[in-house]
């Protein structure tokens, strides 16, 4: 590999420092709307610009796909980046937002990092080598009972027009589980499954840059990654991640 997890961590943590400069001065933060409920801030742009430059210097042979700047010419081997996943939370001064960076080569996720700067939680994984949080190995939970499970989801702000809306699905699952969370960053939500903090996460109509790093981290920690019908794979439009032990109990409710 032309880059190590250690070298990637230096770059992603430095991007976190860029984000925190804006987060610590929210009164001066410029917030714009890409659409009625979809926000972009100066922080999103600054973090993405930093990552594009730093990753390009480290690995000039790889392309880049960022939420804000789009795709460069080379997309066969590429960095997939969400500079701030959870921009609305960020803009409100909440802590649950993260920087997501994944390396994909020939359609396969190879390396990923998700960093929550306000929490100072750094998650990473490399294909076939495991997943870590703040330098310590992590694994999914051992929970086997759906009734005792804690789950998390998201209600993406642009999806209310969908006939297959998440609210009925949430209502079904909420009645069958002990705890439910809606935290606001799919990238970090996926990492909470990897770390055993929650037992399952699902969301719909996302983009690959929202989930690429998180699903690799979850898979390397032992999670199942499927669509809502249980088909294995990375599906941004139907991402469904569990500890594997409650998958069969959840599937009928999806």
TrEMBL record:
Leading EC class: hydrolase
CDD domains: IMPase
Alphabetical UniProt keywords: Hydrolase, Magnesium, Metal-binding, Transcription, Transcription antitermination, Transcription regulation
A Pfam family that the UniProt record links to this protein: Inositol_P
Cofactor: Mg(2+)
Enzyme Commission designation: 3.1.3.25
InterPro entries: IMPase, Inositol_monoP_metal-BS, Inositol_monophosphatase-like, Inositol_monophosphatase_CS, Inositol_monophosphatase_SuhB
GO-annotated molecular function: inositol monophosphate 1-phosphatase activity; metal ion binding
One Gene Ontology biological process: transcription antitermination
Signal peptide (from-to): none
Residues the entry annotates as binding Mg(2+): 67, 82, 84-85, 210
Highest taxon above the source species: Bacteria
Reactions the enzyme catalyzes: a myo-inositol phosphate + H2O = myo-inositol + phosphate
Family the UniProt entry places it in: Belongs to the inositol monophosphatase superfamily.
The protein's name in its UniProt record: Inositol-1-monophosphatase
